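#dry-run=false #mode=assembly
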Amino acid sequence: MTTSGATDVQRLLGVALPIIQAPMAGGPDTPALAAAVSNAGGLGSLGCAYLTPEKIDAVVADVRQRTERPFALNLFIRADEPDDAAARERVLPPLGDFRRELGLPAEPGLAPPPPPFEAQLEAVLRARPRVFSFTFGAPTREVVAALQQERIVVVGTATSVDEAEALAALGVDAVCAQGAEAGGHRGTFLGRFEDALVGTMALVPQLVARVRVPVIAAGGIMDGGAIRAALALGAAAVQLGTAFLVCPEAGTAAPHREALASARRTVVTRAFSGRAARGIRNRFSDAFERLEAAPFPQQQRLTAELRAAAVAAGRTDLMQMWAGQAAPLVRAMPAAALVETLAREAGLA
Amino acid sequence: MTTSGATDVQRLLGVALPIIQAPMAGGPDTPALAAAVSNAGGLGSLGCAYLTPEKIDAVVADVRQRTERPFALNLFIRADEPDDAAARERVLPPLGDFRRELGLPAEPGLAPPPPPFEAQLEAVLRARPRVFSFTFGAPTREVVAALQQERIVVVGTATSVDEAEALAALGVDAVCAQGAEAGGHRGTFLGRFEDALVGTMALVPQLVARVRVPVIAAGGIMDGGAIRAALALGAAAVQLGTAFLVCPEAGTAAPHREALASARRTVVTRAFSGRAARGIRNRFSDAFERLEAAPFPQQQRLTAELRAAAVAAGRTDLMQMWAGQAAPLVRAMPAAALVETLAREAGLA
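#status=ok
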């Protein structure tokens, strides 16, 4: 799979190109997308954070029907906060208003919680992907060792030097440096997310200076020039999410897809899930600018039906539309063509 | 002055290296620092925002004693807000507490306002520096033309695509893309600064795609790897501030200098001047996290004595310490050695 001139990280990940399609749980990262990226020489990823163990088995089987090449599975290392009755009361008025606009009853139901992490981890161990990546926190040293025992490469997500050092101390095989530009959930697990919104240009060299494992750069990377930039900063590989959102293989909702090219303003908000995440600023995120959202996963569960209804109605003012800060640079093309274009522009192929 | 292989931007700026020392008004950017950078083949800058016209004449004469090479002068294009009596009442309690800690009477005096922009501009036109750069806003088209009439190259500062397009429409010769990583004042002048904290990795390629004039990358650049990264993103040159703060020629206060290497958390705050700026997070900035500061320049004037006393007492918990997000990568060496090191690392020399 790897070329003779493969770098350490390419050998580690089992890929010809140091290009990773970021896990994007909740719809965008379909088996078709991940497999297409892997077949093109990159590393496809599947975000399994919201999937039951049975569903993880199924998507893994689906990917393996489509490719024999390495891919990654990703989970949230959760620290779910308990439901908060006062928070529920606080967020009901704006949620009720928005629900009525969408023709839903004002009172929201509570969607089921994400499946327990332990059962998800069992499914990952069964699946034995080449790579397991995680975000939101740090597992125990025993979990890392159990994965590595199955010859699974373990990649943690850091948004600060402190987090990268904590992950390295756990024995992870690589660290993904999530720059502040990145779309979707922030991985911050030590301290406040506001203190860990460090741009890729500043974050990557500091992590490279501080940890001995390979650093994967994420955040703001949309083309081959940015890939060359990340490698110049000392990154061993790059991870792109937003760039893949507009591939036909992605499960991105049509209105979200269309909104990316003109997404001049993104915001890091807890409005949609209760966890800080970067998306396109809209009326929904604005409603939670001064109103504190419920904790994760309560907010996610309280907003699930509303978010689905907003997508169905094409209401971009109320939809959850994760996006990185360079979203306007999206180029809609099949995933294989995008990987090939990125590699060519970056001088990698 | 320029090498035979000089790029367009090197010819424009009259320098051998596409490396600019950022203007850092208020102390750090001494004539000695700017001249050392220019003598080493980069472009030294002097922030003149707080200087009277007579003082601008004097620092320009001082620089010209030290170098015959091109340098830049920088001003704030101010939109001073009027003093706000309610804001004064709001900020007096924390300021009074901090002042008492420093042995000052609780009631702050009001330092003089910055000199009027028009008089500062007259001094710049008299001085005829090779380059005039500006931040905080956009001058009129007439001001840009008057500078260019004197054969002064005009560089504006943008923190978003919208701002870069506005500057290009005014006829500026180059745009400095100020990434969110950058230390010091944010240049944002269209919309809220919170919406224009775009990382360098995401900002530079979007500006390069949208404006025809050369783009200068700023924010998070501390070494030659980051310079190569910025050039890979399409930047024509780079501007570094924090990296120069620890040079012996800089006027940086000793406690500030020492705090940079361990500055793991910076924050964008209005606490010190009333304008959003990135610095090392401390007790003083924390006091204004939920309390709204007075507008610029009222807050700057109300805090002037306190800030000076904090420096004199070495109180880093109360000092203003501008810093970019990659501050821990500072390397203390003379400015000429730093420019030479940067050029060598970047493969420019």
